[in-house]
Automatic annotation (TrEMBL), chain A:
Residues 99-200 form the Dynein regulatory complex protein 1/2 N-terminal domain. Transmembrane segments: none annotated. Residues 671-730 form the Dynein regulatory complex protein 1 C-terminal domain. Residues 1-33, 52-77, 464-500, 581-619 are annotated as: Disordered. InterPro entries: DRC1/2_N (IPR039505), DRC1/DRC2 (IPR039750), DRC1_C (IPR029440). This is Dynein regulatory complex protein 1. Component of the nexin-dynein regulatory complex (N-DRC) a key regulator of ciliary/flagellar motility which maintains the alignment and integrity of the distal axoneme and regulates microtubule sliding in motile axonemes. Plays a critical role in the assembly of N-DRC and also stabilizes the assembly of multiple inner dynein arms and radial spokes. Coassembles with CCDC65/DRC2 to form a central scaffold needed for assembly of the N-DRC and its attachment to the outer doublet microtubules. It is found in: Cytoplasm, Cytoskeleton, Flagellum axoneme. The gene is DRC1. The keyword DNA-binding does not apply.
From TrEMBL, chain B:
This is Dynein regulatory complex subunit 5. InterPro entries: DRC5, Leu-rich_rpt, LRR_dom_sf. Pfam families: LRR_6. It is found in: Cytoplasm, Cytoskeleton. Its main location: cytoplasm.
Length: 757, 447
C-alpha cells in the first residue's frame, strides 16, 4: 500500500512538475514578446531619428538623398527581419506546446517503464514469497496425513486454514493495490485528457493570438514602410522642386542678359542702317545719271537695229516662203520616193523569194543532174568496159572464124591442088608444079608486118646493117618496107609515116651508137649468169644478147618502143644542148641539176608533143649532124630512168589507140578471100572441064563393060547349075528301073563342075 | 404598354385604306389590352428558352449537353439540379460551377486548393471517401463502391480515409475472443473482423497518387472497444497487394492503425522497388526494430524522399539499421523519428551515417532519450555535413556540455537554418548563441 501510495505520489508529482514547465514554457513567450516590443520601439525611434536626420539632411547634397533612398530599403529590410523574428518566435510559442507535450509523454513513458519494472518486480517477489508459503502449506498436508490424533489434526488444519487465509489476504491485497493503481491510472487518464484539451485550447488561443499579432505587426510594418516611402517621395519632390526653382531663376537671369545684349545690338544695327541709307542714295544718284546716258545711246542703237531688223525681216520672209515651197516639193518628192521605195521593197522581196525558190530548184536540179551524170558516167564506163570486152571477144571470134574458114579454104585449096596434081600426073601425064601464092602462107587475119618485128630483131638488123655498112641493106630495108606498106595497102598511113619518120630521120649510126651505149652502160639489168655465158661470144653477139635482156627488163617489146627510146634519147639530148647553150654562162656545171631538164623534156614530150615534134623536126637536121659522141655515158642512166617513168604512160596511150584501130582494118580481107577463092586459075578450070567430059565418056564405056562382065558371070553360073541337075537325073536309080533310061538315049557328056569353074 | 400598341398601329396602318372596320378592331384591341388586368409586360418566352427548360427538366432521362451552343450550355448548367444521379453527370458535365454547387451543398467546409483547384475532383474524392468511411463489411452492398468506380476513376487523385468501420458483431463471445490476439486464428471471427478490401478500388483508379489511411473508428465515445481499432493481418495483406498494383502512387500514409513489425514488413515487402513512391508515413503505430530494419531496406530500394516514423517503438537496433541504410542513400531528404526510443547508440549511429550522407536535409530526433555522446558526434556532423538544414533535438537530455559541443560544431556551419533544442537542457547561453548563428545562416540562405 505504501508503495502504491508512493507510486501514486510519484505519479502525482510529475503532474505538478509537468505543470511546472508549462508556465516556464509560456513565460518565455511574454518575455520575448516584450523584448520584441522593445526592439520595435527602438527601431521606430531609430527610424524617427533617421527621419529627423533625413529632414536635416534634405537640404544637403544628392549623395545623401541616395543614402536616404537606401534608407527606405533598410526600412523594408528591418521590418522584414522583425517580422521574421516575430514569426519565428510565434511559431516557437505555438510549437512549444507540442514540445512540452512530447517531453511530458517521454517522461511519462519513462516513468511508466519504471513503474512497470517495479510492478513486475513486486509481482515476482510476491509470487516467490507466496509460492514459498504455498509450498510450506502443501508440505504440511503430508504431515496432516500422518497425524492420527484428531486434535492435532484439527490444530494443523486450523493452522493451514490460517495460513491459506493469510496467503489469500496477501493476494487480495495485491489485487486491491493493482486495482487502486488502475483506478488512479484512470484518473490520470482523465487528467491527461483534460490536460490535452487544455493544451489544445491553449494552442488554439496562441495560434489565434499569433495570427492577430502577426496581422497587426504586418499592418504596422506595412504602414511603416509606406510611411518611409512617402517620406522619401516627399523628400524627392521637395528636392526636385528646389532644383526646378533654381533652374527657373537661372533661366530668367539668362533671359534678361540676353535681352540687354539684344537691345544693344539693335541700336548698333540702326546706326549702321542709317549710314548705309545715305551711301545708297548717293550711289543711286550717280548711277541714275549714268544709266540715263546709257539709255539714250541704247535708244539710238535700238532704232538702227530696228531698221536692220525690218530689212532682215523682209528678206527672211521671202526666204521663208521660198523654203516653204521647197519644203512642200520636198514633201511630195519624199512621199513619192517613199512609195517607190515601198514598191521596190516589194519587188525586192518578190525577187528574193523567187531567187530563193530558183536557187532551191537549181540546187535540186543540180543534185538530180549530178546524180544523172554519175549514173551516166557509170553507164558509160560499163559500156566502155562492155565494148572493150565485146571487142576482145569479137576479135577472138573473128580470129577463130577466120582461122576456121581459112583452114577450110586452105583444105579445099589443098584438095584442089591434090586433085590438080593427080590430074596432071596421072591423067595427063604432065609434070605438076605447085603454085606459090603469098596468101597460102598467111595464117590468121591480116596485119601490118612491121609491128610483128620485135625490137631485138630491129636492133640486130640495125647493128648488122651498120656493121656491114652497106647502104644496099638500107635500100633493101626500105624496099621491104615499101613493099610491106604497099602490100598492106593504105592501112593507117599516119602510123606508117610516124613509124617511118624516125628511121628515115635518124641515121642508123646514131641509133647504133645509142644502142651500143645502152648495152654497155646498163649492164646491171642483165643477170650475172648471162654475162658469164656471154663472155666467150663475139662482140656483136654479146651486144645483141645484152640488148635483148635489157629490153626485156625495160619491157621494150616492139619496134615502136625502141624507136620511142631512141627518139627520147634524141629529144633529151636536144633539150640538154639547148639548155647548155642558153644557160652555159650562168651554169657552168651540169650534174644533179640536169635531172630537171630531163624531167622537163619528158613533160614537154608528153604534153605538147606536136609542138615539140615540129621543133624537133626542124632541129633534126642539126641533130643528125651532131656527132653521137655528145651523148655522155653518165647521162644514159638518167635518161633511162626518165624514159621508164614516162614509158608506161606512152604505152598505155598507144595500146588503147592501137586496139581501137586494129578492129577497123578489114578492107583488105575481101581481097584476101577473093584471092583464096581464085587459087586455081581459069585456064586450069577449063582444062578440068574438058578433062571431065572426056573422062565421063570413058567412064560410060567402062560402065557398059562392067555390066557385060556381070551378065557373063550369071550365065556361067546358070550353066553350071543345069549341069548339076542333069547329072543328078542320070545317076538316079529310077533310071535303071526304067526300060529305057534317058541316059542311053541322051548322049550327053556334060562338062564337070570343075570345068564350069 | 406603348410598344405593343405602336406595333398594332403599324400593322394596322397598311390595311387602313381598304377597310375601316379593321381600324375599329385595332382600336378595340388597344382598349382591351389597356384594360386587361392579367396582361403583363413579360413576353412569351423564346422557344430556345422553353427547349432549354425542357432539357433541364428531363436531363436525367435525356441528357443533352455537347450539342448545345456554349451560351445555352451555360444556362442549362446553371439551372441543373445537384441531385441528379452521378451516372448521368459524372462523365458528361465538366463544368466547375456545377460541381462547386454540388460540393457546397454536400459539405460546409470546402477548400478547393487541397484538390488541385478542381471542384469536380473534390466532389468525387470526398464522395468516395464518405462511402468508404460509412462502409460496413457484410452489410453494405459492395456494388455501391464498384458502381462508382467507372464514374469517378478519371477524377480521383487522392484518397483520404480516416475511418474504416469493422463488421458488426453478432456474438458477444466472438468479440471476447477477438480481444486477444490468439482469437484471430479462428476462421469465423477473422472473416468477420476484416475491414473493407481496398484492392478492387485502388487498382481501378489510374490517377491515384496519394493514399492516406487510418484503420480506426472515429467518435466512438462510450462505445469504445479495443477491437474497433484492429488492423488485421488479412487487411494488411490485402492492402499490400493492392499497393503493389498501384503504380502511380506517390504518397502513402498509414497512421494510427496499430501497424506492428510483421505488418510493416509485409507492407514494405510489397512496396520494394515501387516506381513512384516518394513519401511514406507510418507514424503513430507500433513498429519496432524489425519494422525499422525493413524500412531501412526500403529506403535504398525505392525513390523515397520523405519518411515519417514518428511515435513508434524503434530502439537503438532499428535506428542502427536505418542509419546504415541512410549512409548509402542518395534520395531521402527528410527523416522523422520523433517519439521513439533511439537512445544514444542509435543517435550515434545516425550521426555517423550523416557524416557520409549528402542528401538528407531535415532530421527530427525529438524525444528520443538522447544525451551528450550523441551531441558530441553531431557537433562533428555539423562541422562536416553540408546538406542538413534542419535538426530537431527537442526533449532530449543533451546537457550543458553537449550544448557547448553542438555550439562548437555549429560555429563553422553555414547551411543549417533550423536547430530545435527546446527542453534539451542545453543551457540558455548556448541556445542563444546557436540561435544567433542560425539567424545568420537564415539570412545567408535567404540571400
Amino acid at each position: 500500500m505504501r508503495r502504491g501510495a508512493g507510486a501514486e505520489a510519484a505519479a502525482a508529482l510529475p503532474g505538478r512538475r509537468r505543470r511546472g514547465p508549462d508556465p516556464a514554457l509560456i513565460d518565455p513567450g511574454p518575455e520575448e514578446r516584450i523584448a520584441a516590443r522593445r526592439r520595435r520601439i527602438a527601431a521606430r525611434l531609430d527610424a524617427k531619428c533617421r527621419e529627423a536626420l533625413g529632414e536635416d539632411a534634405e537640404a544637403k547634397t544628392a549623395e545623401e538623398e541616395e543614402k536616404e533612398q537606401r534608407g527606405s530599403h533598410k526600412q523594408i529590410e528591418e521590418s522584414r527581419q522583425r517580422l521574421a523574428k516575430l514569426l519565428f518566435d510565434g511559431t516557437q510559442l505555438v510549437t512549444n506546446i507540442q514540445v512540452a507535450v512530447d517531453s511530458r509523454e517521454t517522461q511519462r513513458r519513462a516513468e511508466e517503464a519504471e513503474l512497470k519494472l517495479q510492478r513486475v518486480e513486486r509481482l515476482e517477489n510476491e509470487a516467490k514469497t507466496n509460492a514459498c508459503k504455498f509450498e510450506t502449506i502443501t508440505s504440511k498436508w503430508a504431515l496432516a496425513k500422518e497425524k492420527t490424533i484428531p486434535q492435532e489434526l484439527w490444530e494443523l488444519l486450523n493452522q493451514q486454514q490460517q495460513q491459506c487465509t493469510l496467503l489469500l489476504e496477501e493476494k487480495n491485497k495485491l489485487i486491491g493495490e493493482l486495482q487502486q493503481e488502475l483506478r488512479s491510472k484512470d484518473e490520470q487518464y482523465v487528467h491527461a485528457l483534460k490536460k490535452q484539451s487544455d493544451d489544445i485550447h491553449l494552442l488554439l488561443e496562441r495560434m489565434e493570438e499569433q495570427i492577430r499579432n502577426m496581422l497587426k505587426n504586418y499592418r504596422h510594418e506595412l504602414l511603416q514602410i509606406e510611411k518611409a516611402f512617402e517620406l522619401e517621395r516627399q523628400e524627392l519632390l521637395d528636392d526636385n522642386k528646389k532644383k526646378w526653382e533654381e533652374a527657373i531663376q537661372a533661366h530668367n537671369a539668362q533671359e534678361l542678359e540676353d535681352l540687354a545684349a539684344r537691345m544693344k545690338k539693335v541700336e548698333e544695327f540702326e546706326k549702321q542702317l542709317n549710314q548705309l541709307q545715305v551711301q545708297g542714295v548717293e550711289e543711286y544718284n550717280s548711277m541714275k545719271s549714268q544709266l540715263e546716258n546709257n539709255v539714250q545711246t541704247l535708244e539710238k542703237q535700238l532704232q538702227q537695229i530696228k531698221a536692220i531688223y525690218q530689212l532682215n525681216q523682209e528678206k527672211l520672209e521671202y526666204n521663208l516662203q521660198v523654203l516653204k515651197k521647197q519644203d512642200e516639193e520636198n514633201i511630195i518628192i519624199k512621199s513619192q520616193q517613199k512609195r517607190k521605195l515601198n514598191r521596190l521593197h516589194d519587188v525586192l522581196n518578190n525577187l528574193r523569194r523567187k531567187l530563193t525558190k530558183q536557187e532551191k530548184q537549181h540546187r535540186e536540179e543540180n543534185q538530180s543532174l549530178a546524180a544523172d551524170y554519175e549514173r551516166i558516167v557509170g553507164q558509160c564506163k560499163e559500156l566502155q568496159r562492155m565494148m572493150r570486152h565485146f571487142a576482145v571477144s569479137d576479135t577472138e571470134k573473128f580470129m577463130e572464124v577466120w582461122l576456121m574458114n581459112e583452114e577450110e579454104a586452105k583444105g579445099l585449096i589443098r584438095r584442089a591442088f591434090d586433085a590438080d596434081r593427080i590430074i596432071h600426073t596421072q591423067q595427063l601425064g604432065l609434070p605438076w608444079e605447085e603454085p606459090r601464092y603469098w596468101f597460102l602462107n598467111n595464117v590468121g587475119p591480116l596485119r601490118h608486118y612491121k609491128a610483128k618485128r620485135t625490137a631485138t630483131k630491129l636492133a640486130a638488123e640495125v647493128l648488122t646493117e651498120s656493121s656491114c655498112g652497106g647502104q644496099e641493106e638500107e635500100g633493101k630495108e626500105k624496099g621491104k618496107e615499101e613493099m610491106a606498106s604497099g602490100e598492106g595497102g593504105r592501112e593507117n598511113p599516119e602510123k606508117a609515116d610516124d613509124r617511118v619518120t624516125p628511121l628515115q630521120n635518124i641515121s642508123k649510126k646514131t641509133v647504133k651508137r645509142i644502142l651500143e651505149l645502152v648495152s654497155d652502160e646498163s649492164g646491171f639489168l642483165i643477170e650475172s649468169k648471162l654475162l658469164r655465158l656471154l663472155q666467150p661470144l663475139g662482140k656483136h653477139e654479146r651486144t645483141l644478147m645484152k640488148l635483148d635482156s635489157i629490153f626485156t627488163a625495160l619491157e621494150i617489146d616492139s619496134e615502136d618502143d625502141l624507136y620511142q627510146l631512141v627518139d627520147f634519147f634524141l629529144k633529151y639530148k636536144a633539150q640538154e644542148v639547148a639548155v647548155s647553150q642558153s644557160q652555159a654562162a650562168p651554169h657552168g656545171q651540169e650534174g644533179p641539176a640536169s635531172e630537171d631538164p630531163a624531167d622537163l623534156a619528158a613533160d614537154t614530150a608528153d604534153d605538147g608533143a606536136s609542138s615539140q615534134r615540129t621543133e624537133l623536126t626542124s632541129s633534126r637536121s642539126s641533130l643528125d649532124s651532131l656527132p653521137s659522141v655528145y651523148v655522155h655515158a653518165d647521162d644514159i642512166l638518167k635518161i633511162l630512168k626518165a624514159f621508164v617513168r614516162d614509158f608506161d604512160k606512152l604505152r598505155g596511150q598507144d595500146d588503147s589507140s592501137k586496139d581501137l584501130l586494129q578492129g577497123q582494118d578489114s578492107s583488105k580481107d575481101g581481097e584476101y578471100w577473093n584471092a583464096l577463092a581464085h587459087a586455081i586459075p581459069e585456064s586450069k578450070l577449063k582444062l578440068w572441064d574438058a578433062l571431065m567430059v572426056a573422062l565421063e565418056k570413058y567412064h560410060n564405056v567402062l560402065a557398059q563393060r562392067a555390066s557385060l562382065i556381070t551378065e557373063v558371070a550369071v550365065l556361067q553360073q546358070q550353066n553350071s547349075e543345069l549341069c548339076l541337075l542333069l547329072d543328078q537325073y542320070v545317076t538316079s536309080s529310077v533310071n535303071q528301073e526304067l526300060l529305057s533310061p534317058p541316059v542311053q538315049w541322051m548322049d550327053l557328056e556334060l562338062p564337070g563342075p570343075e570345068e564350069a569353074q | 404598354m406603348q410598344e405593343p400598341v405602336a406595333g398594332d398601329v403599324s400593322t394596322a396602318l397598311p390595311s387602313f385604306p381598304s377597310q375601316a372596320s379593321l381600324a375599329a378592331d385595332s382600336y378595340c384591341i388597344q382598349r382591351i389590352i389597356a384594360e386587361d388586368p392579367e396582361w403583363s409586360l413579360a413576353i412569351v418566352p423564346q422557344l430556345t428558352e422553353l427547349c432549354l427548360q425542357h432539357i433541364i427538366r428531363n436531363f436525367e432521362k435525356n441528357p443533352i449537353m455537347d450539342h448545345l451552343l456554349p451560351e445555352h450550355q451555360r444556362k442549362v448548367l446553371d439551372k441543373l439540379s445537384t441531385g441528379l444521379p452521378l451516372t448521368v453527370t459524372a462523365n458528361l458535365i465538366h463544368d466547375e460551377d456545377y460541381w462547386k454547387r454540388c460540393c457546397t451543398q454536400h459539405w460546409q467546409v470546402c477548400d478547393v486548393s487541397n484538390y488541385g483547384d478542381s471542384w469536380k475532383r473534390m466532389f468525387f474524392e470526398r464522395h468516395l471517401e464518405n462511402i468508404l468511411k460509412s462502409f460496413i463489411p457484410n452489410i453494405t452492398d459492395p456494388n455501391q463502391v464498384l458502381e462508382l468506380i467507372p464514374l469517378c476513376k478519371e477524377y480521383v487523385w487522392k484518397l483520404e480515409v480516416d475511418q474504416f468501420l469493422p463488421p458488426v458483431k453478432l456474438d458477444q463471445k466472438e468479440e471476447e475472443d477477438d480481444f486477444s490476439d490468439s482469437g484471430r486464428d479462428f476462421g469465423l471471427s477473422e472473416v468477420s473482423m476484416h475491414h473493407y478490401d481496398l484492392g478492387v478500388l485502388i487498382t481501378a483508379l489510374p490517377h491515384l497518387e496519394q493514399l492516406n489511411l487510418t484503420y480506426g473508428v472515429k467518435d466512438c465515445g462510450m462505445n469504445f472497444e479495443w477491437n474497433l481499432f484492429n488492423f488485421t493481418h488479412q487487411d494488411c495483406y490485402n492492402l499490400a497487394v493492392a499497393l503493389k498494383k498501384c503504380h502511380n502512387l506517390k504518397i502513402f500514409k498509414l497512421t494510427r492503425s496499430k501497424v506492428d513489425d510483421d505488418k510493416a514488413r509485409l507492407l514494405i515487402q510489397n512496396l520494394l522497388d515501387h516506381p513512384c513512391l516518394m513519401e511514406l508515413n507510418l507514424s503513430h503505430n507500433l513498429i519496432g526494430d524489425k519494422g525499422a530494419c525493413a524500412v531501412g531496406k526500403l529506403i535504398n530500394h525505392s525513390k523515397l524522399e520523405i519518411l515519417d516514423m514518428c511515435n513508434n517503438q524503434i530502439r537503438h537496433l532499428g535506428a542502427q539499421a536505418l542509419a546504415q541504410a541512410l549512409a548509402n542513400n542518395s534520395t531521402l531528404t527528410s527523416l522523422n523519428l520523433r517519439l521513439n526510443c533511439v537512445e544514444d547508440e542509435g543517435g550515434q549511429a545516425i550521426g555517423r551515417a550523416l557524416l557520409t550522407n549528402t542528401t538528407l536535409k531535415s532530421i527530427h530526433l525529438g524525444s528520443n532519450e538522447l544525451s551528450e555522446p550523441t551531441a558530441t558526434l553531431f557537433s562533428q556532423v555539423l562541422a562536416q555535413n553540408s546538406a542538413l538544414t534542419s535538426i530537431n533535438f527537442s526533449c532530449n537530455h543533451i546537457g550543458l556540455d553537449g550544448g557547448k559541443q553542438l555550439l562548437e560544431g555549429l560555429m563553422d556551419n553555414k547551411i543549417l537554418t533550423e536547430f530545435d533544442l527546446r527542453l534539451a537542457e542545453v543551457g540558455q547561453e548556448s541556445e542563444y548563441l546557436i540561435n544567433q548563428i542560425l539567424q545568420a545562416n537564415q539570412e545567408r540562405a535567404r540571400l
